Amino acid sequence: MHTHCFIKGAGIVALGLALASPAIAEPSHGVAMYGEPALGADFEHLPYANPDAPTGGRIVTGEVGSFDSLNPHIREGSVPWQLRFLAYESLLGRSYDEPFTLYGLLAETVEIGDDHTWVEFTLREEAAFSDGSPVTVEDVIWSFETLGTDGHPRYLGSWSRVEGIEAVGERTVRITLGEADRELAMIMGLRPILQAAQWEDVEFTESGLTNIPITTAPYIIDDFEAGRFVSLRRNPDYWGADVPFRRGTNVIDEVRMEFFGDGNAMREAFTSGLVTTMRETSAQAWADNYDFPRVQNGEVELAEVAHQRPSGITGFVMNTRRPLFDDWRVREAMIQAFNFEFINQTINGGVDPRITSYFANSPLSMEPGAAQGRVAEYLAPFADELLPGAMEGYELPVSDGSERNRDGIRTAIALMEEAGYIVEEGVMTGPDGPVTFEILLQTGSSENDSIANIYVEALARVGIEVNVTRVDSAQYRERTDVYDFDMTYYRRGLSLSPGNEQRLYWGCEMAEVEGSRNLMGACHPAIEALVDEMLSAPSQDDYLAAVRALDRVLISQRYVVPFHHNPISRLAFNSELNYPDYIPIYGDWIGWQPDVWWVEEE
Fold first, then answer.
1. pLDDT tens digit string along 82-95?
2. Which of 118, 334, 534, 600 is found 20 to 30 A from 229 (Cα to Cα)?
3. Closest of 301, 252, 287, 295 to residue 271, by C-alpha
4. Residue 63: strand, helix, or coil
5. What backbone phi and psi angles, to 5 degrees, belong to 330?
6. Distance separating alpha carbons of residues 411 and 406, to the nearest angstrom
């Protein structure tokens, strides 16, 4: 018998707080992008953590793919994604019950200058690495400088806007920014801190499994087998167990990540009990496949967890570095040919809604119809460079739900003809001959495979031959890092406090940097300007208008063929696993499972 737990979010996101909050004039326990932190200096624990949660037990997650490195901070290698969040700590920690608020973790206090051109962090005296050595200002400075120069591209852009870093006390470090940027000052608090001594005679940029990083986190890497599993063990001597930000978190003794060749193998492992928790992304599979014996006898519970975060963008991204997809009319043709209604019904039973813009499902989403007021003012200087839909409003096509999608195919062919292509004897042909391209997929996702197969058949009706290439995770990363693809699966989660990271996702600076997150090759003056406006907005209204304007530009640029999104998370898990009733506004997100879960054996 199914056990459904419908969990409501913690409340509507409070985006109405004043942006122009009083400047931080002295060290504080935390800092918020808008207004003041919701939790005072005397807070005892995060609202979505259970301070009385017992320690012990284990949780086993399943992952599709493989790994060949344990260092998530460099460009080389394939790393289990959870390591970056579970096995490392930063100066400040993020509360996922607020749009963007940070509280002291390794740092006891944070102080941001009145003019937002510098930030100081004072380390907790008790902060220590897993080998018992103290965290020093020298470790902090080394970590920032090394990650900012030799680390993953996610760190490089922010570091390029830092003017300097220096010790200004025995436990205090000051970072000076090149220009006023309140959000960048906060982001500095989220950089992982590593032990400098461990890397004295080691090449930091070399990927591999031989050098297990020494960190300050509650978990340490206990055991692993390349490509098969990683076991994290709770450190019984963890330095920060009584820090308010950590109370009630990371209490499970073992977090084990098992890796599988494909989604079917992972699902079978969960059904049999090898894996103890599973996220189901398919509404159809959720309805059809979760009545197996362990559910019926109560060994497995099912829950649907709501959230209030933006949909982000998920779909097939087109590489605009390729001549074919450099033309927006071709990109729009690809969107018209994608029969969302039929695919969604086939894959998800028609349950999950479509992604209508990058910030859909949130207060940050663009409003329907023509741009109005401040949004229109932000877009006006770029009117001649914006694509159709940005100013007047952009809507994705809606088919009749039948497999043939005649209107969509007809529109796609017409757009291709406008772009200089023509159908000859059933084959879409251009100046260089028949139009063909490749969809690159990582092996293991049956859902993406199914979507691609249906899409390929639709594009054949347009006269375009598409080849689907499936490669393992290592090959996939190698190819996407150097943008060696035409079209590929793409997912970019977005927060309720977008800011500097937008440059990493679709900024010009990252368009040609190998290994960046800008897979589409986006580089548009309106995007650059709107991110600047977001970061310097003098009021909350201006900030919202800038984000909504950016949303219009991104969706109308037609970089991605959007899929569906889940306004809820569907979780199946062993009954001994528990989580608090209070759900943060981000729902099932980073920092929630396994962070605030616990094991309670019956």
1. 899 999 999 999 99
2. 600
3. 295
4. strand
5. -65, -40
6. 9
Q: What are residue 112's DSSP bridge partners? A: 119
DSSP state, 287? H
Question: β-pairing, 107-112 with 101-104?
Answer: unpaired
Q: Do residues 72 and 84 lie in contact, with contact meaning Cβ atoms separated by under 8 Å?
A: yes
Token pair for 511: 């368009």
Q: 162-167 and 107-112: which strand pairing? A: unpaired
Cβ–Cβ under 8 Å, residues 467 and 439: yes
Does residue 17 register a pLDDT over 70? no
Single-letter amino acid code for the residue at 226? A
What is the pairing mode between strands 219-225 and 465-471?
A: unpaired
User: What counts of helices (H) and strands (E) characterise the chain?
Assistant: 16, 25
List CB contacts of 552: < 8 A, sequence separation 6 or more: 357, 366, 371, 375, 379, 389, 390, 391, 394
**How far apart are the two ends of the chain, measured CA to CA in Å?**
19
Residues 333-356 have pLDDT tens digits of 999 999 999 999 998 888 899 999
What is the side-by-side strand order in the sheet with 427-430?
Answer: 422-424, 427-430, 433-434
Residue 149 to residue 459: CA distance in whole angstroms = 44
Query: Of the ranges 383-392, 438-447, 525-534, 546-555, which one carries the lowest mean pLDDT score?
Result: 438-447
Cβ atoms of residues 382 and 529 within 8 Å: yes
Secondary-structure percent of the chain, ordered helix, strand, coil, rounded to 5: 30, 20, 50
Q: Which residue has the tokens 């890397």?
A: 199
Residues contacting residue 200 through CB under 8 Å, at least 6 positions apart: none
Contact 93, 107 (CB under 8 A): no
Pairing of strands 229-234, 219-225: antiparallel
Joined together, the tokens standing for residue 512 give: 């040609």
Structure letter (DSSP) for residue 420: T
Residue at 412: amino acid letter: A
Task: Specify the DSSP class assigned to residue 399.
Answer: -
255/268 Cα distance (integer angstroms) = 20
DSSP letters for 561-583: EE-B--SEEEEEEETTEE--S--
